[in-house]
């Protein structure tokens, strides 16, 4: 910064000297030297400014690193304090566990002695129990054989009793069913004979009425078919007449508009140019467009399709 201030003061002096030199109209050689020195000083100024900016950026980055390291040191200190507390707690726990181990080892010695004495007593009791078990097993085997025989005889008795009861029930049911079927057979024969006579009479009358109705319906259907066919033809004919009238009206309107727009002199002029009479020219003007002819063809085809559709409907049931 001091170098910068010195250079700025020198620049100001050089500028002042150059201004005074210009006013006093001195020789050109010293003014060139002054300009060169001015440029050199300006270059030095720029270099110094660049160095200052670089140093300021490095200082800022170093400050930020210092702050980060301080924060990291604080965090590490807090962690160290926590770890020291944990260590102290663990030491106390280890001491308690050691004391408990000593107490448990002493208790184990006494319990082992009592266990040995109890094992001896258990062995003696197990020998007595095994002897008693052998005697009990033999008695159980005898009991099982007796109970099996008893259960087999009881099952045989119950089965025979159940079979007898079922056969008695079947006999009674069969007797009752035989009586009911005989009654139903007699009733069915009487009712069937009566119904057959009645149905024969009714069927003859119904067949006659149905035949009459069928003849009437066939006549009506034929009349309806003829009526629909005539109606469709008339409709098609009337529609075609209306379309032709509409087209003629459109043509007449267009011709009138053309005649109104064209004067007699212009018509004569056009006829003379084309070597045609005025009547021929009017016929040329009245010629239909290709689009209109195409439309008429499309409409005629649609009418045909409609007629075919109606005929299919009439032919269907």
Automatic annotation (TrEMBL):
InterPro entries reported for this sequence: CNTLN
Any single Gene Ontology cellular-component annotation: centrosome
GO biological process: centriole-centriole cohesion
Location of region: Disordered: 1-34
Signal peptide: none
Positions with biased composition (Basic and acidic residues): 1-25
Domain of life: Eukaryota
Protein name: CNTLN protein
Native organism taxonomy: Eukaryota, Metazoa, Chordata, Craniata, Vertebrata
